[in-house]
Amino acid sequence: MIDLKTSDTNTLDRLVAKLRRHPDAFDPGVNPRAVRVVLTSSAPLAERFGNYPAFIFFDGSHANYTPEQLARVCMISYNFKKLSRWKGKTPLPDEDRLRLSETIKKVHALGKPVRFWGAPDTETAWKTLLELGADYVNTDKPEACAAWLRK
């Protein structure tokens, strides 16, 4: 994933130009084992996905894409804080559990993995989100999370 920090299309255009110089590394049409490039944060609007090469994929932010747009979405990511105020230290409230579970099911029905950014960064939260079916754990504590996953 490449986290774009500016909404300026010049940044994305420069990135695409650099990646095009290495089709053997980034273009699955040239190399089936190419690195999958997924843009997140300041990615373009879905209506503009088609303006970029087919080897560029996007981190989706909702579940209402056209079939063509959805083909360019690698995963769908939600702001956890818009779905729950849970701090990850106590059991997840039932109402929040249901809301998160429904969100995960909706994304999985589209055939896409789901992640939540801004989620609590605790062992309880990691465990709960994985039990609910989240496909990725977002963390700013990679060593602690890796150690926990190895348990």
TrEMBL record:
One BP term from GO: lipid metabolic process
Alphabetical list of InterPro entries matching this protein: PLC-like_Pdiesterase_TIM-brl
Domain of life where this protein originates: Bacteria
GO MF entries: phosphoric diester hydrolase activity
Stated name of the protein: GP-PDE domain-containing protein
Organism in which the protein naturally occurs: Ereboglobus luteus
